């Protein structure tokens, strides 16, 4: 590999000195039907780019793969490697969560490092992670995840200017590191970034802390949700989660899932997300339930053990997390309404048709099914759906969906609960029914008090 590339992520990281005495780590890699080349690329990069005395062992957990070469061929191959590589086989397809639990239980290192099965560790990836855990054993640390193209296997450095968040549907998303976090680090980009959530695949955790904090929710299946579950749990229960920007590990981001989801993709992910929402999100789970019609019908099993864990650890409420850890979240901590916005005259509802940025907000027959007709009028007086806000930048419209910027400006709306009007403060005009020319979009008109300017902000609560 070209050395220059591996060293060029951040020149100031190169001069950092780490303590000689660092905890050692087991590296746990779970896989289901992984390709030979990507799996071995992961294992070799761990072995070749970790100081031998810091690497206790590599544990491969085979989640009931069907490919032949992952059986005896793999077993014989790893015998010749210079670091102990243990292979554990799940008896039946269990999903990455329970497979990781099995790997963790079999591991001996002081730290457990989890990696996906299609990664490449770079030189110097491990020391900064372990050093941070040595400083504070309740810090769970992630490297910067570099991007390996799934077409060309080209290696591209990831950004130290994004951190982990999530949207109303509980999808993990990268968002820009906010100014407050830049300020806290006083502009030193070699210092770790405190991140609200982690992507999930690549992180190190002190092994005793992993157990103290409740490992994983073993009731989650196959894939999804466990990364947010662990993120919320760490923060709410007194730990912290960081991206250590001097550590880089590449990951092959794949356009499509290469394996099956027994039970159906949607069902599995919804079930895991319900367990996450029910245990950790308190009343804020409504944002997930109201925007995802149908999800409340999914059976999520028994979460009493996880709720007891939350009590025993005396974890803080989700509102604390939103206020202190993730104030720039897509979920507003305080809001007046969450649900449809219905016009009194036409009885139609605002509808964020394509959920795309920079498009006009629409208006359609109310369907009461959540999804595109869910908006929240927040305490900051923005009308938002997920990360998009109703925005008007010209007199008489149009009304566009734009990324919420929290700067008031063109996204500031005053709801008059007696007159039922939604007044756009900057233009001093009111949201009105569509014009004759375009029946699909609302208009902005001078405020007149007419019925067509009256809107009902429904407060829906579906939460089970
Ligand atoms: C991301 C995470 C992944 C996990 C997931 C949410 C990164 C880079 N990846 O998705 O680790 O947190 O979000 O759940 O942050 N696997 C099994 N059994 C299964 C399914 C998957 O062993 O039934 C293995 C799979 O071979 C891989 C790992 O689990 O090694 C993660 O799966 P993925 O690579 O499909 O997940 P990814 O990267 O899309
Ligand atoms: Mn992956």
TrEMBL record:
GO terms for molecular function: carbohydrate binding; metal ion binding; polypeptide N-acetylgalactosaminyltransferase activity. It is an enzyme of class 2 (transferase). It is found in: Golgi apparatus membrane; Golgi apparatus, Golgi stack membrane. This is Polypeptide N-acetylgalactosaminyltransferase. It comes from Ursus americanus. One of its GO terms (cellular component) is Golgi cisterna membrane. It holds the Pfam family Glycos_transf_2. CDD domains: beta-trefoil_Ricin_GALNT13 (cd23467), pp-GalNAc-T (cd02510). Pathway: Protein modification; protein glycosylation. It comes from the Eukaryota. Its EC number is 2.4.1.-. One of its GO terms (biological process) is protein O-linked glycosylation. Belongs to the glycosyltransferase 2 family. GalNAc-T subfamily.
């Amino acid at each position: 590999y070209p050395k220059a590339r591996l060293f060029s992520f951040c020149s100031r990281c190169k001069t950092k000195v780490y303590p000689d005495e660092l905890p050692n780590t087991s590296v746990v890699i779970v896989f289901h039907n992984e390709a030979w080349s990507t799996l071995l690329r992961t294992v070799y990069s761990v072995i070749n780019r970790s100081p031998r005395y810091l690497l206790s062992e590599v544990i491969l957990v085979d989640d009931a793969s069907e490919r032949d070469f992952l059986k005896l061929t793999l077993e014989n191959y790893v015998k010749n490697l210079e670091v102990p590589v243990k292979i554990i086989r799940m008896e039946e397809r269990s999903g990455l969560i329970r497979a990781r639990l099995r790997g963790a239980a079999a591991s001996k290192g002081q730290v457990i490092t989890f990696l996906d099965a299609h990664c490449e560790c770079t030189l110097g990836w491990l020391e900064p992670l372990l050093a941070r855990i040595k400083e504070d054993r309740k810090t769970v640390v992630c490297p910067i995840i570099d991007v390996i193209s799934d077409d060309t296997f080209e290696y591209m450095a990831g950004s130290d200017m994004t951190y982990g968040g999530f949207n109303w549907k509980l999808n993990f998303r990268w968002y820009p590191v906010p100014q407050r976090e830049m300020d806290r680090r006083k502009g030193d980009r070699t210092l770790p970034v405190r991140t609200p959530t982690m992507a999930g695949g690549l992180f190190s955790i002190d092994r005793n802390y992993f157990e103290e904090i409740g490992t994983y929710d073993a009731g989650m299946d196959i894939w999804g949700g466990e990364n947010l579950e662990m993120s919320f749990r760490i923060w709410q229960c007194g730990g912290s989660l960081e991206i250590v920007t001097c550590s880089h590990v590449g990951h092959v981001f794949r356009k499509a899932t290469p394996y099956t989801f027994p039970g159906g993709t949607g069902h599995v992910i919804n079930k895991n997300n319900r367990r996450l929402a029910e245990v950790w999100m308190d009343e804020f789970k409504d944002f997930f339930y109201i925007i995802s019609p149908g999800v409340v019908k999914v059976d999520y099993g028994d979460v009493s053990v996880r709720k007891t864990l939350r009590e025993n650890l005396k974890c803080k409420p989700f509102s604390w997390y939103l206020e202190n850890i993730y104030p720039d979240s897509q979920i507003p901590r305080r809001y007046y309404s969450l649900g449809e916005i219905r016009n009194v005259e036409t009885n139609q509802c605002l509808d964020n048709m394509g959920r795309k940025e920079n498009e006009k907000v629409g208006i359609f027959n109310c369907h009461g099914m959540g999804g595109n007709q869910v908006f929240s009028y927040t305490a900051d007086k923005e009308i938002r759906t997920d990360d998009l806000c109703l925005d008007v930048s010209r007199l008489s419209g149009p009304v566009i969906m734009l990324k919420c910027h929290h700067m008031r400006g063109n996204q500031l709306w005053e709801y008059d609960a007696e007159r039922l009007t939604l007044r756009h403060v900057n233009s001093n005009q009111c949201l009105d029914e569509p014009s004759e020319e375009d029946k699909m979009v609302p208009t902005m008109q001078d405020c007149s008090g007419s019925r067509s300017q009256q809107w009902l902000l429904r407060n829906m609560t579906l939460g089970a």
